[in-house]
Design a protein that fits this description.
The complex is a heterodimer of chains A (89) and B (132). Chain A has 89 residues and is mostly helical. Chain A is 89% helix and 0% strand. The radius of gyration of chain A is 16 Å and the shape is elongated. The chains are: A mainly alpha (89), B mainly alpha (132).
Chain lengths: 89, 132
């Protein structure tokens, strides 16, 4: 089993299953805070999927997009918490 | 040898991300969910990115990966604290099995400022009596 097969048939399915599980919490989540956490974790898992995919396709350029996704995840969480705090005042 | 290292790193990273997802489903409380996602996901994503850095073995890509890991390590606790604070103000209930809430009655509901223990101690006691 080569590294390509291992990443393609084992690691990527594990990450996809975890995205599906987080999506379940995103749809179900009792409060809006749960949805924000689930969204943050989906984007963070997306960074991992991009890292594995850049290994598979041998394209290090994809890591730039991973960095931008990390920035967007942080900004989104900060904006959501700011909005929630202002709304409750 | 390099391929085995990449495989081990990627396996542990994927397992940590999967554990974070399972914890997000199984945990009974919003605050416990915040705790799970912050810790497990940070370690898992860090390991996956280190696997990519080992695979390419280039100085510029390693620097990029280290920058991403450092950014995630710095921002994950900050965003977790912010969202936890917002959820505490929006009256998200603690799990019924929680035994201790240190912040109970210490936050001003309108100005969102934390009262100091020393100067407001008598006032807090009277507040508690009135509530009872």
């Amino acid at each position: 089993m080569t590294l390509y097969d291992f990443l393609y048939y084992i690691i990527l399915p594990i990450l996809s299953i975890s995205v599906i599980l987080i999506m379940f919490r995103f749809l179900k989540g009792p409060s809006i805070v749960d949805r924000v956490i689930a969204l943050d974790l989906i984007i963070t898992t997306g960074i991992g999927i991009i890292a594995v995919y850049s290994i598979i396709t041998n394209q290090p350029t994809f890591l730039d997009i991973a960095m931008i996704l990390a920035l967007i995840a942080f900004l989104g969480t900060v904006a959501f918490s700011y909005y929630l705090e202002k709304r409750n005042k | 040898m390099t391929e085995i290292t990449i495989g081990i790193l990627a396996s542990f990273g994927a397992i940590f991300v999967l554990l974070a997802a399972v914890g997000l489903i199984r945990m009974p409380d919003t605050y416990l969910r915040i705790s799970v996602t912050t810790k497990a996901a940070t370690l898992g994503i860090g390991l996956l990115l280190v696997a990519a850095a080992v695979f390419f073995g280039d100085m510029s890509i390693t620097t990029k990966v280290l920058a991403i890991i450092l950014f995630i390590l710095l921002t994950a606790p900050v965003s977790a604290h912010l969202i936890g604070r917002a959820s505490y103000f929006s009256d998200v209930k603690l799990w019924k099995g929680s035994v201790l809430d240190d912040l109970e009655g210490k936050y001003d509901k309108f100005s969102h400022k934390l009262k100091s223990d020393d100067e407001k101690a008598p006032e807090k006691k009277t507040d508690n009596i009135e509530e009872d």
